[in-house]
C-alpha cells in the first residue's frame, strides 16, 4: 500500500500560531514546486516520523492536502537539537516526468583491509548529488571499502552510478581514503650536565679545607 501523509492547509501564518501547532503535536511545513507553487501546511508529527523512516529522505510519497493528493518528497528539515525533535519541514512537490537533483547519503560497506593493517579510514563525503527522475532516486549510495589498503582512496569516478541516475559531483572528488597510522615522534635525547665533575669539584674543595685545618 502506497504511503499517504495527510496535511492541513495553514491559513494563519503568525509566529504565535506556529507554537500552538507544535503544542498540538503537529509540525509546520511548506510544500512547493515549479508547477505546484507554494503552500503552507501542517502534518502530524508521529505520522511524519513514520513516513520519513519508511520512505527515507529521497523517497517520493503521496501527500493528501485537504483531500487533494500530490507527489512529494522531503527536501529539508529543521531540528530543535535541545528537544531532539523536528520543528519544520520543506516538502518538494515533484514532477514525476522531470529529472531533479537530490543529495543522497553515502553508506560504507565492509571493513577496509587497510584498517585491519592499522590504517585510518577517512570519509570525506557523506552525501553525493544525484540527478534522476524523482521515482528513480536511490535511498543511499553504497560504497564497498573492503579492498582498500593503506594509501588507497576512492573518488566519485570510481563509483558505479545506477542505470537510471548519474552523479553531479566532480569525478576527481575523493569520497573515502585510508591513511597510514600515526607515527609516534621519537623522544629527543636530553643532554644532561656532567654531575660527576661537580661532585669531584666539591670533593676537591672539601679536601683542600681539610688540609688547611690540619696545617
UniProtKB/TrEMBL annotation:
GO terms for molecular function: 5S rRNA binding; structural constituent of ribosome. Pfam families: Ribosomal_L25p, Ribosomal_TL5_C. Residues 181-215 have a biased composition (Acidic residues). Keywords: Ribonucleoprotein, Ribosomal protein, RNA-binding, rRNA-binding. Gene3D superfamilies: Ribosomal protein L25, beta domain, Ribosomal Protein L25, Chain P. Part of the 50S ribosomal subunit; part of the 5S rRNA/L5/L18/L25 subcomplex. Contacts the 5S rRNA. Binds to the 5S rRNA independently of L5 and L18. This is Large ribosomal subunit protein bL25. It comes from Alkalicoccus luteus.
Amino acid at each position: 500500500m502506497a504511503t499517504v501523509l495527510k496535511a492541513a492547509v495553514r491559513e494563519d501564518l503568525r509566529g504565535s500560531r506556529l507554537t500552538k501547532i507544535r503544542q498540538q503535536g503537529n509540525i509546520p511545513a511548506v510544500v512547493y514546486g515549479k508547477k505546484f507553487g507554494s503552500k503552507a501546511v501542517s502534518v502530524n508529527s508521529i505520522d511524519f516520523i513514520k513516513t520519513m523512516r519508511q520512505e527515507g529522505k529521497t523517497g517520493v510519497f503521496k501527500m493528501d492536502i485537504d483531500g487533494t493528493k500530490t507527489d512529494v518528497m522531503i527536501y529539508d528539515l529543521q531540528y530543535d537539537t535541545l528537544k531532539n525533535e523536528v520543528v519544520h519541514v520543506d516538502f518538494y512537490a515533484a514532477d514525476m516526468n522531470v529529472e531533479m537533483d537530490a543529495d543522497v547519503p553515502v553508506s560504507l560497506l565492509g571493513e577496509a583491509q587497510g584498517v585491519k593493517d592499522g590504517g585510518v579510514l577517512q570519509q570525506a563525503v557523506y552525501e553525493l548529488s544525484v540527478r534522476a527522475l524523482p521515482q528513480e532516486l536511490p535511498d543511499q549510495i553504497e560504497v564497498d571499502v573492503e579492498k582498500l589498503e593503506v594509501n588507497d582512496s576512492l573518488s566519485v569516478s570510481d563509483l558505479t552510478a545506477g542505470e537510471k541516475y548519474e552523479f553531479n559531483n566532480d569525478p576527481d572528488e575523493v569520497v573515502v581514503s585510508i591513511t597510514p597510522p600515526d607515527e609516534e615522534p621519537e623522544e629527543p635525547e636530553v643532554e644532561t650536565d656532567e654531575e660527576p665533575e661537580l661532585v669531584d669539584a666539591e670533593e676537591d674543595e672539601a679536601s683542600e679545607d681539610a688540609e688547611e685545618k690540619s696545617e
